[in-house]
Specification:
Length: about 325
């Protein structure tokens, strides 16, 4: 059945094997490169926080009536401006998605919009050139059409996939480090530090162990010092990090700011809840593991095991039956 389907698409089994081998080699190479790549999150975090601090200072002390200017990105910026993509209804939603992925620069949304429009055309042009112009692999018409449509769809959804994966990874790192950060906030609050000083101190202490959480706390501390409305700074933290634990922390801080409730005791309760939530997540993953391992075990482990155990007996039975037939 598989051979007939490949024949309809114009593929041969050798071509499929070559493609799978090349894909495996590329995946292994990318995995090794990413593993060996040394990243310094502290330098990037310091640079981003410095840019955000300068932006906030300019907004506070600069003239109120001034023309808003976007940093130039050459061709990308002109392309986005001509299509008025920044004024679309989805621009604010895209900006929130980029912030949750850790990309708060003004250039990020321009790059995203440009790639969102350009990548489908680029991938489609490459597929048409390879399979229609150069007639690569000599595929049938249906196979060429399927690959071209797949390339266009990949180009259309690739930016969203990258952003979603980055946001998910960042959220997981923040969820893991949140209980430790709350414990440090409890210590700072009991020592008599203010909220903005507490956040800045905790961000300094967790710069190496949890750069994502330190980034968010540092930016929130800066916004508490620059923005006229302190509630807005805390609400921005909840907007950037879409996690139940962070929402609970923000609500606790807002309550403490409004009613003057004891901050250390509330943070201690939130720290215990966050730690229990992290334990429950780990137990949930452990409970799902047997179900997830069932399919790989059936597909990859049981067939070789059966071949090793009964392969010799089957071959002897075949030889014996063939001898009786002759």
């Amino acid at each position: 059945m598989i051979a007939e389907f490949l024949e309809i698409l114009g593929f041969t089994q050798d071509q499929v094997l070559i493609f799978m081998a090349g894909l495996s080699a590329a995946t292994i190479s990318i995995t090794v490169w990413v593993t060996l790549l040394h990243k310094d999150p502290g330098a990037r975090r310091v640079k981003l926080i410095g840019e955000q601090r300068d932006s906030l200072r300019a907004g506070m002390v600069g003239p109120r009536r001034r023309q808003e200017r976007l940093p130039t990105l050459g061709l990308m910026r002109r392309f986005v401006d001509q299509l008025n993509l920044l004024r679309s209804a989805q621009a604010s939603r895209i900006s929130i998605k980029l912030m949750r992925a850790g990309w708060r620069s003004k250039d990020a949304i321009i790059l995203y919009l440009f790639l969102k429009v350009a990548l489908p055309f680029a991938f489609g042009a490459v597929a048409v050139t390879l399979f229609y112009g150069l007639n690569l692999y000599g595929l049938a018409t249906l196979g060429k059409l399927a690959i071209t449509i797949g390339a266009v769809l990949l180009g259309a959804y690739l930016p969203d996939i990258i952003i979603k994966n980055a946001a998910t990874k960042r959220s997981d790192n923040i969820r893991t480090a949140l209980p430790d950060g709350l414990d440090l906030m409890v210590i700072c609050a009991e020592a008599g530090l203010s909220l903005d000083a507490t956040l800045l101190r905790v961000s300094q202490e967790m710069e190496k162990s949890a750069p994502e959480l330190a980034d968010e706390f540092s930016l929130t501390g800066l916004e508490l010092g620059f923005l006229p409305d302190r509630r807005k700074a805390l609400q921005n933290l909840m907007l950037r990090v879409d996690l139940p634990g962070v929402r609970g922390v923000v609500n606790t801080l807002l309550q403490a700011e409004r009613y003057g409730t004891p901050l250390a005791q509330s943070l201690r309760v939130m720290s215990a809840d966050s730690r229990n939530e992290r334990i429950m997540k780990a137990e949930e993953k452990a409970a799902r593991l047997p179900a997830l391992l069932t399919v790989p075990m059936i597909v990859f482990i049981l067939p070789p095991l059966f071949i090793i155990l009964i392969g010799r007996a089957v071959l002897k039975a075949v030889d014996a039956l063939s001898g009786l037939t002759l």
